[in-house]
Amino acid sequence: MTIDKSWTTIRRRGSSNEFWNGLQHFLQMAKPFVNDRGFIKCPCRRCLNNASHQLEDLESHIFRNGFMFGYNQWIHHGEPATANAGTTVAGPSGGIHERDEMFDVLDDIISEDVDEDAVGGPSSNDQYDDLFAALRSELYPGVSSFSLLNFLVKLMHLKVLNKWTNKSFDELLKLLKLAFPKIDLVESHYEAKKLMTKMGLGYSSIHVCKNDCALFWKENSLKDTCPVCSESRWKLQSGKRSGKNVPHKVLRYFPVGPRLKRLFATSKTAKLMRWHSIGKSKDNDVMRHPVDGKSWQEFDKRHPQFAGDVRNVRLGLAADGFNPFGNMSLSYSMWPVVLTMYNLPPWICMKAEYLMLSLLIPGPQSPGKDMDVFLRPLIDELKELWVHGLDTRDAASENGVFRMRAALLWTVNDFPARSSLSGWSGQGYRACPTCNEDTPSMRVIGKTAYFGHRRFLPTNHHWRSNLQFDGRTERKRPPRRFSTTDILEQLRRVKTGIPGKHPNYGGVKRKRGDDELNWRKKSIFYELPYWATIELKHNLDVMHIEKNVCDSLLGTLLTNPHKSKDTDNARRDLAKLGIRHELHLFEDGNKLMKPAADYTFSEANRRKFCRFIRSVKFPDGFASNLLKNVAQNDSRLLGLKSHDCHVIMQRLLPVGCRSLVNKNI
Questions:
Q1: Which of 101, 112, 275, 363 reaches 20 to 30 Å from 175, CA-CA?
Q2: Distance, CA of 583 to CA of 513 (rounded, Å)
Q3: Band of the pLDDT at 268, cuts 50, 70, 90?
Q4: Cis omega (within 30 of 0) on the bond before 324?
């Protein structure tokens, strides 16, 4: 009898029917030769016939580690010693059962940890044995094409998509077991989740001081009290710890490295991770991806070794707060920290399935100045990815394994979140992070106003000599650009504060010295070796800003008392500055009169504008139906989303206002 052994040299085992069928035939052949305890020598590339396992473990070992080299005569597994080891003929036409689609998934997962040729042999991690056991288990007698693992993965996916509770998931499992007594299922959501975590991409739960002073992590992991404020790590009942230790706060950390390795485990995404090197715009005046920007190009010049391998990952970080309880009156702010990969093309890198959640910062208060406390695990991993990198299998390369490194290029956030991340306060007389200490500002009634925008105009622009802006001509040039050396010198003068919100420690307000400018802290990002030299560190989210501007602009045009910027105090400020006399408040008997401005609609024009918005029809998918955002009396617009504001600002406002306001506006 001749035996086909060609399947033992196949590298991509998960995507090969030939390997799977050959393995099943080998196991059937070896089955009669197990010892009295059910064990037999394992010919995988880790065990090398030196260790014995049960037959079902042989399947996962060989599938995970590959078949050992040089074992051409299977004398330990049923082949006669006189057999011709080199003979190969057509193998078995079919496997023991049809190959499940989850084999491809497991092969991609295993390939992250295993390389037969380049990184010192396969992994000795046995975490996949339970997954292979679930993969071998028939969901129901006679159903060989649908394994228990496949069913659980699809069921958990439905749970996430439809927002089932854990209790409803448990009830469904009970119903399935009751309706189909022979079905092979787990008992609860806990058991299903426990099995799914072995597929990787889990998260770490890190306890946090209730005052946000410190993480109970690494050197603090065994402490029961906060190293800063000495508050208990655990919730107390009547001054005593309850029977089960329950932490005050839990930070969820999702490691970045394994998720980046997973992207290179499949050939499709591995090829997409090279797009930035071939997709650059050939027109120097066109920017269609961050790779075309100056900051990216300057980074490549400063770090040529990193830029030399196009597979090294460029990351962007976004953070903002939201209320997980929706429209409930409960005040709560939870902050997700999300990473995006700019190696990918622009039509993919911002899609939800390619955004990586790295941190989930608990509430109920926003982290504020203590953001660095929560960013510590992420920054430590980013430093490791920059200095040492990770051995990663590249499914799209013949070379197999490479040393993947990663760099954080910038953050993307709104203005308040920028303050928390950068350390430069967004309030006060020096709020502008670009103008820095040269920020032009003045105090008006009830707030600080920022002016001097005409500095950015050409020196011969006629608006520079117009006195209606602030009563003065503008002769200043655009603000100077501060170099890396200037910024680091400013940060050197910043005093290190105590973290946390405890009223006796970090919660004590500290008055900044004049030499500290608007710096509240030196951001933790400066621990990254390359951060100080990055050209553009923090980007502002245009959609946030555009929505705020649109709401204020529409509120002013439609004279909405809650949104308008044309307030009584604004008119009093005009009188103090001695400009635009026609808009000053005046008294008419016992009444204070407010003259109508050219930049606001009359009542009739308000109705015309709202009817125009109501009548607009858009192509499918272009924008939402704005009809529902127009008030019943056609006097204002309500409940606009960010994209609604974008469409109104870019498309509708110029057309709708053209005949309703003065031509000078």
A1: 101
A2: 40
A3: confident
A4: no
Structure token pair of residue 162 = 């439809």
pLDDT tens by residue, 62-96: 887 788 876 777 878 878 755 444 333 333 333 33
The strand pairing partners of 322, in sequence order, are 334
What is the spatial distance between Cα 340 and Cα 313, in angstroms, rounded to a whole number? 10
Residue 155 CA to residue 197 CA, distance in Å, equals 15
Q: How far apart are CA 261 and CA 664, in angstroms?
A: 58
> Do 289 and 346 touch, CB atoms closer than 8 A?
yes
> How far apart, in whole angstroms, are the C-alpha atoms of residue 563 and residue 560?
5
The conformation of residue 278, written as its DSSP 8-state character, comes to H
Q: Give the whole-angstrom CA distance, residue 451 versus residue 463.
A: 14
Question: Could you report the per-residue pLDDT of 200-241, keeping only the tens digit for each?
Answer: 778 899 999 999 999 999 999 999 999 999 999 998 876 666
Tell me the CA end-to-end span of the chain in Å, nearest whole number: 93
pTM above threshold 0.85: no
Only one residue has tokens 């105590």, namely: 498
Q: Using alpha carbons, list the distances in angstroms from residue 438 to 117, 478, 479.
A: 59, 10, 7
Element (H, E) at 484: helix 484-492
Q: How far apart are CA 335 and CA 456, in angstroms?
A: 35
Retrieve residue 498's tokens. Answer: 């105590």
Q: What is the pLDDT of residue 265?
A: 83
